[in-house]
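hiii, so i know i said id send this last week but things got crazy w the move. better late than never?? heres the sequnce for the chain we talked about at the cafe, plus the structure i predicted for it. fair warning i was half asleep when i ran it
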Amino acid sequence: MVYRCCWQVEVDIRNIKTTFGMETLSCKTPEMCKKEMWAYLLAYKLLRLVMAESAMMSNVLPRALSFKHALQLWLSWSGTSTLVDDITKPLALIAEKSVGNRPGRTEPRAVKKRLKPYPSLTKPGQEAREQVRKYGHPKSLSKCHSGMSPISYANTNSII
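okay and structure toks below
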């Protein structure tokens, strides 16, 4: 039972990150990053409220509705409507698409694609900065992705 609750939390976080396009924050300062995160959380809660309203109208569970479908419908409707438009039509459309019950789902915890062409930082920042000062940055990023770590790359450059 606890696992299923945790799974729902993970699905919610995934929805916030991927569906809203929040894999990387665009702000530069910590204060603005906090504001950007709060804006995404507010948008998420508002969309979940719309989904709950739609589920209540259609007599289905809110978790059974597709988050991405609800977001796409809401964005298309809100971009073309006025305040006097009837809101029941998009709510009915949101309730049409359900995700169904998928018990026992297991997903691998792996990153499919790196967002940046740089290698992962696998050591403390201070140690990595000292290495860059001592050996410099790798000449080619493709060598970092060929399985050669920046340390071994730097060592091969110093031998040559």
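btw Residues 142-160 have pLDDT under 50 and may be disordered. thought thatd interest u
miss u guys!!
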